[in-house]
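Figure S4 source data
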Amino acid sequence: MDAVNRHGDGRFKPGHAIPGPGRPGLAELNKARQALSDAITPELISEAVGIMVEIMRTGKNRDRLTAIGMLLDRRFGPVSQSDVAASVEELETRITELLSAVRDGRKVNHE
């Protein structure tokens, strides 16, 4: 431990000049990401979407559902917790209204 640049508990003192190793492999990771980005052209993306649409239309049920989910997620984004919470709240309100109508003997509107 370098006592000149560190406090007694091992923390660095303000203004220390000892560079850390950084994140090992980050440069290689960035190169790989760039290569992947360069390889995926707009044409390739269109082809991939076309394949997903074809699977959605003609695949087995499980594959079709997966393709539909992928297409919707990529077009509209994945469903968030707040979306689910709002839907649950809406359903709870509607259920409360229906139960109240049934208890009061009122006609239930099935919208």
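Figure S5 source data
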Amino acid sequence: MEYLEGCPLNQVISSRPLELERILDVCIEVAAGLDAAHARGIVHRDIKPASIFITAEGRAKILDFGLAQVASKKEQTKPETMDTLEVDEAHRTSQVYRSELWHICPQNRP
């Protein structure tokens, strides 16, 4: 297990607003982390500021994969033939990944 010094993003943003450049840096790092997880078929399913940790060095780390799911092999692999069912499954998996990325954008939070 990795030891981290810093605090969750929700604490960082509650104390003061972040500058646009910093927001973009955090979003890019979180998107890269989610992309790495998605490439391995892992969907976090609970991405929110409390699940993002900002280290003392200013790096963003994704925490709390407790609700994560692993996509089935059929959802992870590209089908050789595309029938309606396979297209629907591919679309649904793509929507799940995009949904996680949608939630990290500050303007999309309630």
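The chain has a mean pLDDT of 75. The first helix runs from residue 9 to 15.
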